[in-house]
C-alpha cells in the first residue's frame, strides 16, 4: 500500500520543519549556515524536528474534519463547528508560538467571539495561510469533487476571505488528491488548469454563504472569477518556469516568494515538479529559498508525499518530527 495520506502529512511536516529556520533569511545567510542545498539536514533541537503553525493548523483542520465525518457525509453545517473550534483552540494554545500569520490570529480571535464566521473572515487577505493547511481535504477518502472543493474553500475563508485564497486552497487540495490517486506529475498542471477554468464563475454559496457580498465585486460570479483568474495567471508562470527549470537557483525567483496563496501553490509545485523523483530533494530545495520557506516547503512536501507515499521518507525523520503520533494517526485513518 502506498499510504499516500501518511506520506503527504509527513512530507508537509518535514518541509515545514526544514523551512522553519530559513524563513525570513536571504540566500546568502542560508548558504552560510547550511552549505549546499542538496545536503541540507532536517534541523533538530533537543532531538526534535520542530514545526510551525503550518503543521499545527493542518492538524487542527484534519482532526476537525475527522470529527465532522463521524457525524455523516461532509457538509458545511457538519464541518463548521469542529473546525472552527479547533482553529480557536490553536489560536490560544501555548504551543502557538511559531511566528503565526497575523491574518490567522486576527480571524481566529474573531471566531472565538462567536457570531457568523463570515464576519470574522479577512476579506482582503489572500495569504498562504489559506492553503498551507488544506492538504487533508485532498486525502480524506470518499469525498466527491463538490465536497472537496467546497470544504477547501470554506476552511480557507474562515480566515482568508479573498477569492484568490479560496481558489488557491481549492487547487492545492485538488493537486494533493490527484497525486495521491496516482496522476503522473507531468499531467498535473494541465489538470489544475482545467479545474480552474471549469470553476471560474462558480460561487460555492452552499459552503460560503454570503461571503462574496463583503467584497467589492459586482456579483458573486465576478468574485469567484477574480480568484480563479489570478490562479490561472500563476499557473502560466509555473509552466514557463518548468520549460527551463533550474534546481540550483532560488525557486522564489521563478514563481514567487510564496507569501500569498497562489504563489505558495506555484512555488511548492515548481519544487515538486522539478525534482519529483526525489522527495527529500523536493523539501530541501523548497526550504532553501528566500521567501515563505516553511509554507512553500510544507506544500512541496505534501505533494511529494502524496505522490510517493509514506515509505519515501527516511525513518530517522519520522522518529523525530514533532506531532508524530497525531500525523500518523490521521494518516492511518485515511490511507486507502
User: What proportion of the residues form beta strands (DSSP E)?
Assistant: under 5%
- Would you state the CATH class? Mainly Alpha
- List the domain count as a whole number: 1
Q: For the terminal residues, how far apart are their CA atoms? A: 8 Å
Please identify the structural class as seen in this structure.
Answer: mainly alpha
Q: Which word captures the global form? A: globular
> Which homologous superfamily in CATH is the superfamily?
ADP-ribosylation/Crystallin J1
Mean of pLDDT: 97
Gyration radius, in Å: 18 Å
User: Which regions have little confidence, pLDDT < 50, spanning 5+ residues?
Assistant: none
Note down, in words, how this protein is organized.
The protein is mostly helical. The protein has one domain (4-334): ADP-ribosylglycohydrolase fold (Orthogonal Bundle), CATH 1.10.4080. It contains 18 helices and no strands. It has helices at 4-19, 27-34, 53-70, 76-92, 102-112, 117-120, 136-139, 145-157, 163-180, 188-198, 205-208, 220-243, 252-255, 261-274, 279-287, 293-308, 315-320, 324-334. The protein is globular and about 50 Å long.
Compile the SSE list and pairings.
Layout: H1 4-19, H2 27-34, H3 53-70, H4 76-92, H5 102-112, H6 117-120, H7 136-139, H8 145-157, H9 163-180, H10 188-198, H11 205-208, H12 220-243, H13 252-255, H14 261-274, H15 279-287, H16 293-308, H17 315-320, H18 324-334
Please outline what is shown here.
The protein is mostly helical. The protein has 18 helices and no strands. It is globular and about 50 Å long.
